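Input (structure):
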């Protein structure tokens, strides 16, 4: 907390002199957050994480996690949860604070039948008949001959503007320019040791200039923990002031598809600042025509310019901050244009809704308007912590890559407001409880810290607001890709077997 508590009135005056900014405070993750993206679940971004790697020996790297295709039931057969072969998935990095991407990493996916596009066929009465299922036998590390399909992807780095910049396709010596995405966790009979099977698809990523990173794309246990059902039923939480572990995690039975990439700090930072901003987007072609004689390889034909349909950085900006009429507009926008959404952060509605629902219990919304504290925390970064020089206000997660790593087991789930400067909103780690952090910040936690004279304008600044769904760093692994093994569609029901295969 030292980096925040020393700013005082000078910080507020400095922020007040900045132009109006867009965006807002985070809450739960972005599952089905806008009307249009509900029609395209494969490109629905659910969460974005960006943190210094805390795996032993990897402190010189930053890990990015972009999760897509939400609320995956474990019984996802027969087709399970592939990504969209007609979509463009991207991770963007701004390394000079101007609200524009300097590096973009583009992911394109292909899902194909094996055997030259014909798939596996069985001899039935003298005729070779294509099978209707995704696998016909057991799968293991090094043996995927029983798989009926294979999903692959490519990674392209763009320097400068994501559409007109310099492009370089990335690969490695072993796999060339194409990487394989492991099939989802079908079940214990099909894939007895899913961790060993999936781990073979963690790849070294060769970067220009001789640097290397790592990449993994595959199904994982959804890392986000939130009391989602009650939150969207007029915040129908039994006690919003605690305890912090009294409610069910609405996503405890669900998986998600994760794009995980680790890059050297020296490769992604500029000479002017160690602070980077990041966000993820997904785009579709402007036009899609259905194939009247659809095939596995060509169910439709897509063409035209890329149209961005999903955007995500800080969690739940679009769900509970951006007005319903602007949700699809926000998803199609870029950080550099965020001034158009300014009123949603300077005059937020969520605190007023909480007061309306819980006023009888003493909940009072902050009276500080405009909310310069929220502008600082989520749109510009905090001076002395994660605000780059000459910053242009925009909605993105910002990470100071010079902040020391906090080891797993010592991370504070409340991040910066819990005294751990390596946590949210200085980047976002998997174990940061952004729901509880955001509830407290939106209700004024930072107001008296940033300017003690404004303390009366935040009467609930020190109340322990919570959704009751608990998460910390113990929910995750100590090494890349950090997220837990996805839940199996048909698990071995013994507790010992579940523990062996990483199931919870």
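Output (sequence):
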């Amino acid at each position: 907390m030292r980096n925040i508590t020393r700013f005082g009135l000078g910080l507020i005056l400095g922020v007040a002199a900045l132009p109006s900014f867009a965006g807002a405070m985070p809450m739960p993750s972005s599952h089905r957050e806008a009307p249009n993206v509900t029609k395209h679940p494969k490109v629905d971004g659910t969460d974005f994480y960006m943190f210094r790697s805390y795996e032993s020996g990897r402190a010189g790297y930053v890990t990015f996690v972009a999760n897509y295709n939400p609320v995956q039931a474990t019984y996802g057969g027969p087709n399970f949860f592939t990504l969209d072969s007609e979509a463009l998935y991207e991770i963007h990095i701004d390394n000079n604070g101007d609200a524009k991407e300097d590096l973009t990493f583009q992911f394109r996916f292909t899902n194909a039948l094996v055997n030259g596009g014909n798939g596996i066929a069985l001899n039935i009465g003298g005729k070779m008949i294509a099978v209707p299922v995704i696998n016909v036998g057991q799968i293991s590390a090094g043996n995927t001959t029983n798989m009926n399909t294979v999903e692959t992807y490519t990674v392209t780095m763009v320097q400068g503007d994501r559409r007109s910049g310099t492009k370089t396709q990335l690969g490695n010596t072993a796999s060339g320019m194409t990487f394989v995405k492991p099939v989802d966790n079908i079940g214990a009979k099909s894939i007895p040791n899913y961790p060993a099977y999936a781990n073979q698809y963690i790849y070294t990523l060769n970067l220009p200039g001789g640097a290397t990173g790592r990449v993994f794309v595959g199904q994982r246990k959804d890392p986000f923990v939130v009391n989602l059902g009650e939150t969207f039923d007029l915040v129908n939480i039994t006690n919003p002031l605690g305890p912090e572990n009294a409610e069910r995690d609405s996503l405890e039975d669900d998986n998600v598809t994760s794009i995980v990439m680790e890059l050297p700090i020296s490769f992604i930072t500029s000479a002017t600042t160690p602070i980077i901003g990041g966000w993820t987007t997904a785009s579709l072609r402007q036009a899609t025509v259905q194939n009247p004689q659809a095939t596995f390889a060509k169910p439709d034909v897509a063409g035209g310019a890329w149209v961005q349909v999903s955007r995500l950085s800080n969690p739940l900006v679009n769900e509970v901050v951006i007005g319903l009429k602007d949700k699809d507009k926000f998803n199609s926008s870029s950080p550099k244009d965020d001034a158009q959404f300014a009123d949603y952060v300077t005059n937020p509605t969520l605190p007023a809704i909480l007061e309306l629902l819980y006023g009888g219990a003493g909940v009072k919304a902050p009276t500080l308007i405009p909310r310069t504290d929220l502008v600082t925390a989520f749109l510009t970064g905090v001076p002395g912590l994660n605000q780059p020089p000459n910053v242009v206000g925009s909605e993105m997660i910002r990470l100071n890559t010079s902040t020391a790593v906090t080891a797993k087991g010592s991370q504070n789930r409340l991040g910066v407001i819990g005294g751990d400067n390596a946590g949210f909103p200085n980047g976002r780690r998997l174990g940061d409880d952004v729901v509880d952090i955001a509830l407290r910040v939106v209700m004024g936690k930072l107001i008296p810290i940033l300017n003690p004279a404004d303390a009366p304008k935040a009467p609930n600044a020190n109340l322990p607001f919570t959704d009751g769904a608990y998460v910390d760093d113990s929910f995750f692994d100590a090494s890349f890709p950090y997220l837990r093994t996805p839940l199996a569609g048909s698990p071995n029901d013994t507790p010992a077997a579940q523990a062996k295969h990483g199931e919870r």
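Notes: The two ends are 34 Å apart (CA to CA). The chain is about 15% helix and 25% strand.
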